[in-house]
Structure formats: structure tokens, C-alpha cells
Design goal:
By secondary structure, the protein is of the alpha/beta class. About 40% of the residues lie in helices and about 15% in strands. The chain has twelve helices and 14 strands. The strands form four sheets. Strands 3-2-1-4-5-6-11 form a seven-stranded parallel beta sheet, sandwiched between helices. Strands 12-9-14 form a three-stranded mixed beta sheet. Strands 7-10 form a two-stranded parallel ribbon. β1, α1 and β2 form a beta-alpha-beta unit. It starts with a strand and ends with a helix. It binds nicotinamide-adenine-dinucleotide and UDP-4-deoxy-4-formamido-beta-L-arabinopyranose. The site of nicotinamide-adenine-dinucleotide (NAD) has 27 residues, from α1, α5, β5 and β7. It comes from Zalaria obscura.
């Protein structure tokens, strides 16, 4: 039995594909739109391989209003949107900010307009811990709660904070306008999910992160060191005020993060909270050296690294206070950092070329 239909924008990307899997496994019908800017259509085959169900895939750019309109027209059963499609490289956002505003902000505007036109009333949005900026400026707010004042420190973060405001204003207006017409308006809801650092891959080794260019994040870079694509990892700063001098982050297994989207969507559908922000993190901080150690352990050998200067814009500590999601969404992380490292290594070893190669034979024959 299908419990509902979800349009997943950016659904062939890293977090979108794992969320699509969680939705399929929970008997949602899934329609994916993506322009493949940072992903591959092969991901759809892998989703089918794992779940036994094939999501519909439509190549579509979210900044193309007419194309989005057609998607909704062709799928009148869609009643929810989970919105991942975006550009996400912090450094690049400082070089080409207008492109970030075009895709992330204008793209969301097109999406919201189409939702209003087609009366699609629930949206779950990929926000980011980056909206908090340097939360260490409020020492009593580590780990970071949702009511920590926001203060992004880069254009990418500004686009996420802008979209949060845009979705809030949109949902509130839809509710008020419906009330003026004598309706309840309560069907209009939005979840702003602020992710910390996603990590890991599917335990089968057939689905994982497949960035198209040079990776920016710690774990994909460490994985490249492990397969010999990169000589060593550069540790950006060992002079932070932490137990070993390296910066602290909250690494969350991608399966737990995907599950967070499913429970947030279910919450919107049954509790009608209006717009609400939830942190999705583990609440545990790990340093860069902790991560090198954990991933080296999964790989079975020491991985080479060298200390380099701090990276511009980095902060000491980004760790989530996830109590709100624990309580309101009844969501707890289930997977450990060790599992994330083992799963990432299995995916990397099996697919050194990412989705540009066939899945391992033994999996297909299962
Ligand atoms: P990703 O790049 O793997 O996925 C984004 C997807 O959006 C890609 O498949 C890309 O092809 C698609 N896309 C980009 N521009 C598009 C456009 N104009 N039209 C249609 N599709 C387009 O990234 P991800 O890590 O899966 O991130 C997903 C979302 O989560 C993003 O919004 C990102 O900002 C947010 N986020 C990511 C992280 C992280 O560390 N990965 C942390 C917090 C928030
Ligand atoms: C983690 C730690 C680095 C690479 C970014 C975005 C954030 C969110 C998640 C989207 C830091 C250190 C890294 C390397 C290193 N994305 N590092 N050597 O910066 O916490 O968060 O991705 O919303 O907005 O800012 O993640 O994986 O880049 O870095 O020492 O080669 O690893 O300095 O302390 P970050 P990251």
C-alpha cells in the first residue's frame, strides 16, 4: 500500500538518494527530479537493486519553472516535497555567490511557486548547521540548540538561511490565506532540517557518495587517500582549543540522517506543526584526529596526513544538541561512527570510480 507520494529534488545526490531509499522502504511513492549536476542516473538502478522498487526519475532543473510545472502536472498524486537540490561547496560559494543564490534561492522560489499552484502542502528542506556560523561565540550554546542565533559566515550559508526564511514566510502566508477563505490551512507545513556532518554509505557497498569533482569534505578526502588517489590528508589546523588541537564536528551516519527525513515528513503529515527547525546530529563531537584514527581502523592501515594551516572560515566546534528531534520526532541515531567508517570503506573499495562502474557481481547475484 502506498502511504503518500513525495517529490525528491536532488534525489540522485548523496543525502537525497539515501532519503529516497528510506521513503521507498516505508512505502512512499518517490518521484526524483535532478539535473545531474553533481550526481549520476546510475543511482536509480542502485536504489532499485537495494529496495526492489524503482523510483521515477525526471531530469529537470529546479530553476526551470515550466519544467517543474510539468512534473507536478504529470503527477497530481504528489502531496509532499523533500528539497535537496542545491549547490553546496562553501569555498566555491565565495567565488560565484550569484550562482549559489540562483540555484539555491531562486530554485527554491520556483519550487514553492509550483507547490502553491498545485496545492502540494508539505515541504522538508535540507538546511545545514552552517546557518549557525561560529556558535562558539555563545559558549553556553555548545552543543548547539535550534534557538542558537543564526549567523552564517559564507554565501552558501547565507543562501540556506535565506531559504529557511522564505519557506517560513511562504507556509505562514499559505496558512493565513487559507484561513481567510474559511479553511483551516493546517495542511501547510515545513520542516527545516539542519544537518551536521553526514558520513558513511549503504552497508551493502552499492550506494554511497559520488561527488563529480574534487571533494571538499573530510571523509571523501580520506577515502581518496585510502585508495591512493591522494598522497595524504592535510589536517587543517592542530592549534584549536580541543583535546588534540584539531576541530570538532558531529558526524552522523547517512542512514540515520535519511531516517530523520522520513520521520520529519511523517510528523508534518500527522501533527501539522507549521514551520519548525530540527537539528539532525548525534550530539557527539569527534576531532579530525579521531576521524583519521577511526577511518584508518576501518581500512586496516595507518593513513598518511600532514598538518597544514587552518582553513579559512572553519570553526572550532559544530556539535548538535539533537534533543528537539529526539523528543518531538521520536528520532534517535542508531549507527556508530565505526559503522560509518566501515560502510564508507566498503563503498569506496567496491566502487573506486563511484557510480561509473558496475555494482559488485556478488550483490547482483544475491
Ligand atoms: P549532492 O550534491 O550530492 O546533492 C545535491 C543534488 O542536487 C545533486 O544530485 C545535484 O545534481 C542536484 N542539483 C544541483 N543543482 C540542481 C538544479 N539546479 N536542479 C536540479 N538538481 C540540482 O549534495 P548532498 O550532500 O546530497 O546535499 C543535499 C542537500 O543537503 C543540499 O541542499 C546541501 O546543501 C544540504 N546539506 C549537505 C550537507 C553535506 O555535508 N553533504 C550538510 C548540510 C546540508
Ligand atoms: C570537517 C573537519 C576541517 C578537509 C562542511 C560545510 C557545512 C556542511 C558540512 C553543507 C573540519 C577538517 C577537512 C581536509 C581537514 N555542508 N578537514 N582536512 O567544514 O565541518 O562542514 O560540510 O551544509 O556547511 O561547511 O566539513 O568535512 O569539510 O570538514 O582537516 O582535507 O575536517 O577543517 O574541521 P565542515 P568538512
Amino acid at each position: 500500500m502506498v502511504v503518500g507520494s513525495v517529490l525528491v529534488t536532488g534525489g540522485t545526490g548523496y543525502i537525497g538518494s539515501f532519503t529516497a531509499l528510506a521513503l521507498l522502504e516505508a512505502d512512499y511513492k518517490v518521484v526524483i527530479v535532478d539535473n545531474l549536476y553533481n550526481s549520476s542516473e546510475e543511482c536509480i538502478n542502485r536504489l532499485e537493486l537495494i529496495s526492489g522498487k524503482r523510483p521515477e526519475y525526471i531530469q529537470c532543473d529546479i530553476t526551470d519553472e515550466a519544467a517543474l510545472d510539468k512534473v507536478f502536472e504529470a503527477h497530481p498524486d504528489i502531496d509532499n516535497v523533500i528539497h535537496f537540490a542545491a549547490l553546496k561547496a562553501v569555498g566555491e560559494s565565495g567565488e560565484i555567490p550569484l550562482e549559489y543564490y540562483r540555484v539555491n534561492v531562486y530554485g527554491t522560489l520556483c519550487l514553492l511557486k509550483a507547490m502553491a499552484k498545485h496545492n502540494v502542502t508539505n515541504i522538508v528542506f535540507s538546511s545545514s548547521a552552517t546557518v549557525y556560523g561560529d556558535a562558539t561565540r555563545f559558549p553556553n550554546m555548545i552543543p548547539i540548540p535550534e534557538d542558537c542565533p543564526s549567523g552564517p559566515t559564507n554565501p552558501y550559508g547565507n543562501t540556506k538561511a535565506t531559504v529557511e526564511a522564505m519557506i517560513t514566510d511562504f507556509i505562514n502566508a499559505q496558512r493565513n490565506n487559507a484561513k481567510k477563505e474559511g479553511k483551516s490551512g493546517e495542511e501547510w507545513n515545513g520542516a527545516l532540517l539542519r544537518y551536521f556532518n553526514p558520513a558513511g554509505a549503504h552497508p551493502s557497498g552499492v550506494m554511497g557518495e559520488d561527488p563529480q569533482g574534487v571533494p571538499y569534505n573530510l571523509l571523501p578526502l580520506l577515502a581518496q587517500v585510502a585508495v591512493g588517489k591522494r598522497e595524504k590528508l592535510l589536517v587543517f589546523g592542530d592549534d584549536y582549543d580541543s583535546k588534540d588541537g584539531t576541530a570538532i564536528r558531529d558526524y552522523i551516519h547517512i542512514l540515520d540522517l535519511a531516517e530523520g527525513h522520513l520521520v520529519a515528513l511523517n510528523h508534518l503529515r500527522s501533527n501539522h506543526p507549521g514551520v519548525r527547525a530540527w537539528n539532525l546530529g548525534t550530539g557527539r563531537g569527534s576531532t579530525v584526529y579521531d576521524m583519521i584514527k577511526a577511518f584508518s581502523h576501518a581500512v586496516g592501515r595507518e593513513l598518511p596526513y600532514e598538518v597544514a594551516p587552518r582553513r579559512a572560515g572553519d570553526v572550532l566546534n559544530l556539535t548538535a544538541n539533537a534533543t528537539r528531534a529526539n523528543k518531538e520526532l521520536n528520532w534517535q541515531t542508531k549507527h556508530t561512527l565505526e559503522e560509518a567508517c566501515e560502510d564508507l570503506w566498503r563503498w569506496t573499495e567496491n566502487n573506486p570510480q563511484g557510480y561509473r562502474q558496475q555494482p559488485p557481481k556478488e550483490f547482483v547475484e544475491k
